[in-house]
Specification:
The structure is a single chain. The chain is an alpha+beta fold. The protein has one domain. It contains five helices and ten strands. The radius of gyration is 17 Å and the shape is globular. The two termini are about 25 Å apart. The mean pLDDT is about 95.
Length: about 220
């Protein structure tokens, strides 16, 4: 088993705020806005009934989609950018794709949380099949935000199996300062943790993916140092 973790969700560029994380580890997954024309109506921030204050009539780019999230019924993710698409396309059925987001602390942080903002794992897919690198036939895969666009633009499209999930509690990748990577990044992944690591795809070989899986399943908090 191999794994890749990629940055998704709202940030200070789009739509200008990060999603919140609370002292108990609960958080809100806030998608970025949809910036391209669509062939069909897509969910708005109002449809998602978010805690985060955003314009209710703004369409959301609901990607990744998680079956347990509002307006979703499957696990899918598409990406048009090579920096993410390339490592994702190297995964295979039963490998894992993790999603992490930068989140802003709301309330006094717990001792395992970043003081102001940090990067946190928020969900995962177990791949139901090999990633698709060509436009799929309509109806052959579940709904995805890139399929809803007037022009399909995903360089890779992933479908998660029923073993996929949106987490109930965020899993930290940052130390007490959001810019400082914890051991999950520096020891388990191939990333150095230097520079803006929280914007980069994180690659995990078989050993690293196994260590990450064990760490998440044990829910060891505060995080391993």
């Amino acid at each position: 088993m191999r794994a890749v973790a990629i940055n998704v969700a709202a940030n200070t560029n789009q739509p200008g705020v990060r999603g919140p994380v609370h002292p108990d580890g609960s958080f809100e997954y806030v998608p970025i806005p949809e910036t391209e024309p669509t062939r069909e109506r897509v969910p708005t921030y109002g449809d998602l009934a978010l805690e985060t204050d955003l314009p209710s009539d703004t369409p959301a780019h609901l990607d990744p989609s998680f079956a347990e999230y509002p307006c979703c019924d499957a696990y899918t993710y598409g990406d048009p950018h090579g920096v993410k698409a390339r490592p994702i396309s190297e995964l295979r059925e039963d490998d894992r794709l993790y999603f992490y987001a930068t989140l802003t602390q709301h309330g006094d942080p717990a001792d395992w949380q970043a003081a102001e903002w940090g990067a946190y794992l928020v969900g995962e897919f177990t791949l139901a099949r090999d990633p698709l690198t060509e436009e799929p036939e309509r109806g052959s895969v579940p709904w995805n935000a890139h399929l809803a666009r007037e022009e399909y633009d995903a360089a890779v499209l992933v479908e998660g199996s029923s073993e996929s999930r949106l987490y109930d509690r965020a899993v930290p990748l940052s130390e007490s300062r959001g810019v400082d990577a914890n051991r999950v990044v520096t020891d388990y992944s191939a990333d150095s943790g230097k520079g803006p690591w929280w914007r980069r795809p994180l690659r995990f070989d078989a050993d690293g993916a196994g260590s990450l899986r064990e760490w998440i399943e044990r829910e060891r908090y505060p995080p391993v140092r």
